[in-house]
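Help needed: design a sequence for this.
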């Protein structure tokens, strides 16, 4: 046993006071006057030995009371085996301030981050003022957060705010250890989410420094969040009903009934719906809306959920679609695709002969069809090749009767490995069921019936390989394939639509596939929304000299200048670490606003399942890494103090002092 304040032992001289009282016998005999023998009290016979024993017991109890009272002030403790605390030259503290730390803690009715801040305030008081303290959160701020003393810690902690960023354990540890010596101690305060924390890092880490992982236990891991948002038709149509598909995830262990969803466009509520979601699963809700303005609309989806609120709002941008220009190059007055595209107001359809389709007309089209031409001359092939390599989309449909080497010019200029089929063109084969996992068929099939009757078709063209096989015959050969050429795409059909033995043009699959090809040619370069986990993205922007001017992202009064590189005609942006607040950001070039982008928090932070302290101990068998828990049934500071400073005994001394005081009272009263 060791005394923290041994100078209080001088208080033991107070023991002389009860000793003197008992030896001098200050108590005097009392005189009782009476006039009648009836008033004579009964006197118990007490021997001198009994009286002497009582006095000695009272004296002993008073002495012991004083001894233990003095020991309370001396603060005795049993020293710990870990004496590295006294040798610590520096203290590193990582405070997890990611979005999941908004969750309610298992004790105190406060958030996990508030509980972490309280624990940091407590533990820093255990170190001498001369020991420098470094505090690190997910923002990776430096300067004011280094070389702190315990007195500055509360002020610095008051500046820490929630951040959507989450960092890898290896990166955090390398930042904490930079520029430090060997005698240091690291504290890691976090909820240790399964979706973001890698316990394997500490298993492989070979360090001489002591690392203390402090698990801040949440009261519950239940959470609702919007997982994704998409358009059913991929394009937003003006003055028509558009449908939004919203996927909401329930991370809790109980089902959620009647979850309310609100769609707000601009400043007005445009739609609302409610859904039921099973535990640990997602459900998709449909919301219909209508736009009457051609301007880009800022929209958001809101879901009600407590106590984690950072992911209750999902921001996105709605861009009304412009008409898709389709150029059909054919030699027939009434082609087989004429009625298909003229019946849809979204398409601006134009049909021309091969002799009138010049370079200027082709360049203005979003999609060009080479529709059953008997041959493609070198001039047209050259124009189409330039169109595709500059980013255009081309569909090639062969003719029943083609001139010798009729398509060789265009295939060679595009650099795609397609040739005339060697098989008998009257022979037909059945198409295989489409692969619904292919992104091309998204929103075409809600559920694929394996009993669906697929069309049969001949084979006029064939290829050994392609960049994407969209429709295939049952023998594995291709019927519709995608080839990449330059910046554009080429779609090739194996057979003409007008062939009598080609059932594809009369099948229910024909219209959605052709519409999908047309819509994919007009995909917006700007996404509905971006995620902060995707730190790099690309956009088409005006040609500029980035050495003389720059692009910036601005919201309210904040301005961020991302790292920017121009590659292959697109500008690639890398978001700065400081840009972390979800919402709308204007992409500006100098003082001109080019577009508005929506950014949302990473979904990994919304998955609140955490490792328990017991799991961390089993997953990290590193003797220099110790696991603590701060919860309703665990006090981190008490555990840490017991292991590093020892077991304090002053509480027991106080109890013993009160016990002997009670013994003294009982001896005087009853003995």
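Sure. Designed sequence:
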């Amino acid at each position: 046993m060791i005394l923290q304040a041994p100078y209080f032992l001088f208080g033991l001289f107070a023991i002389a006071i009860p000793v003197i009282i008992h030896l001098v016998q200050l108590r005097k005999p009392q005189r009782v006057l009476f006039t009648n023998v009836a008033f004579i009290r009964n006197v118990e016979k007490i021997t001198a030995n009994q009286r002497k024993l009582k006095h000695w017991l009272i004296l002993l109890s008073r002495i012991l009371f004083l001894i233990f009272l003095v020991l309370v002030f001396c603060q005795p403790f049993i020293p710990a085996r870990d004496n590295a605390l006294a040798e610590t030259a520096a203290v590193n503290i990582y405070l997890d301030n990611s979005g999941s730390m908004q969750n309610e803690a298992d004790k105190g009715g406060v958030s996990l981050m508030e509980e972490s801040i309280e624990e940091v305030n407590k533990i820093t008081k255990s170190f001498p003022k001369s020991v420098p303290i470094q505090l690190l959160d997910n923002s990776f701020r430096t300067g004011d957060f280094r070389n702190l003393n315990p007195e500055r810690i509360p002020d610095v902690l008051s500046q820490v705010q929630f951040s959507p960023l989450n960092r890898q354990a290896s990166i955090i540890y390398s930042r904490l250890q930079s520029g430090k010596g060997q005698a240091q101690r690291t504290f890691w305060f976090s909820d240790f989410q399964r979706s973001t924390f890698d316990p394997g890092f500490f298993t492989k880490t070979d360090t001489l420094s002591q690392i203390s992982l402090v698990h801040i236990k949440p009261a519950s891991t239940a959470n609702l969040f919007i997982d994704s948002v998409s358009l059913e038709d991929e394009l937003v149509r003006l003055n028509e009903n558009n449908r939004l598909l919203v996927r909401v995830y329930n991370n809790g262990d109980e089902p959620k009934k009647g979850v309310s969803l609100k769609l707000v466009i601009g400043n007005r509520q445009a739609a609302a719906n409610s859904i039921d979601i099973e535990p640990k699963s997602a459900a998709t809700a449909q919301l219909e809306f209508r736009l009457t303005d051609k301007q880009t609309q800022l929209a958001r989806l809101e879901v009600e959920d407590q106590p984690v609120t950072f992911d209750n709002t999902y921001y996105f941008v709605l861009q009304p679609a412009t008409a898709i220009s389709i150029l059909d190059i054919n030699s027939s007055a009434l082609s087989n695709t004429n009625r298909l595209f003229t019946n849809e107001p979204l398409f601006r359809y134009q049909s021309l002969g091969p002799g009138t389709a010049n370079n200027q007309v082709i360049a203005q089209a979003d999609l060009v069809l080479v529709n059953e031409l008997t041959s493609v001359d070198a001039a047209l092939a050259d124009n189409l090749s330039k169109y595709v390599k500059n980013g255009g989309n081309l569909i090639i449909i062969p003719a029943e009767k083609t001139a010798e080497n009729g398509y060789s010019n265009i295939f060679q200029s595009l650099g795609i490995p397609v040739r005339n089929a060697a098989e008998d063109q009257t022979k037909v084969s059945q198409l295989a069921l489409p692969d619904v996992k292919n992104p091309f068929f998204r929103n075409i099939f809600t559920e694929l019936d394996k009993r669906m009757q697929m069309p049969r078709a001949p084979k006029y063209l064939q290829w050994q390989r392609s960049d994407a096989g969209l429709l295939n015959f049952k023998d594995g050969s291709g019927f519709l394939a995608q080839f990449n050429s330059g910046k554009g795409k080429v779609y090739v059909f194996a057979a003409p639509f007008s062939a009598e033995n080609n059932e594809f043009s009369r099948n229910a699959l024909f219209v959605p596939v052709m519409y999908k090809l047309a819509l994919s040619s007009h995909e917006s370069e700007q996404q509905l929304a971006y995620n902060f986990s995707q730190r790099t993205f690309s956009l088409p922007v005006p040609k500029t000299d980035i050495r003389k001017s720059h692009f910036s992202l601005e919201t309210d009064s904040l301005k961020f200048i991302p790292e920017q590189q121009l590659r292959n005609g697109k500008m690639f942006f890398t978001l700065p670490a400081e840009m972390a607040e979800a919402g709308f950001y204007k992409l500006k070039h100098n003082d001109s606003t080019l577009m508005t982008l929506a950014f949302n928090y990473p979904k990994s932070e919304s998955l609140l399942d955490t490792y328990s302290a017991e799991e961390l101990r089993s997953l990290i068998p590193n003797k220099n890494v110790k696991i603590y828990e701060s919860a309703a049934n665990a006090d981190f500071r008490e555990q840490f103090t017991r292991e590093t400073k020892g077991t304090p005994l002053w509480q027991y001394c106080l109890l013993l002092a009160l016990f002997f005081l009670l013994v003294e009272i009982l001896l005087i009263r009853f003995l």
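The first strand starts at residue 2 and ends at 3.
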